Each structure stands twice: as structure tokens, then as C-alpha cells.
Amino acid sequence: MDHLFGAYGLNRLELDTWSGNERAVRSFTKPGFREEGRLRSAVLMEGRR
What 3-state DSSP class applies to 16? Predict the structure, then answer.
């Protein structure tokens, strides 16, 4: 992350995953990512949101 912020001048990185993917959520928070919000009804799966 330091390389991306320093070399490319980024000021924000964003990751997303399904909220039920607890391993991914834990691995994202370990280096310092924070949850800012959740998208509800954003995915249509088997005719349901």
C-alpha cells in the first residue's frame, strides 16, 4: 500500500467482498482497511436481491 500511495499519488484504496466472506473481511482489516458502508440490494441472485 505504501508503494501505491507514494509512487502513484493515490489517496484512497477500495476493496469489496460479500459480507458473509469473513476471512476476506478479516484479511482486509489486518493491514488497516476500514468498513465504510454496505451496499444493500445491489446484487440480483436467483431472482432475489
Answer: coil
- Distance from C-alpha of 21 to C-alpha of 14, rounded to nearest angstrom: 16
Nearest-angstrom CA–CA distance, 26 and 42: 22
Domain ranges in the chain? 1-35
Q: What angle do CA 7, 27, 6 make, to 5 degrees?
A: 10
For the record, the C-alpha cell of 20 comes out as 458473509
Mean pLDDT computed over 19-41: 88
Burial (CB count <10 Å: 0-12, 13-18, 19+), residue 21: exposed
CB count in 10 Å sphere of residue 33? 14
Model confidence, pTM:
0.60
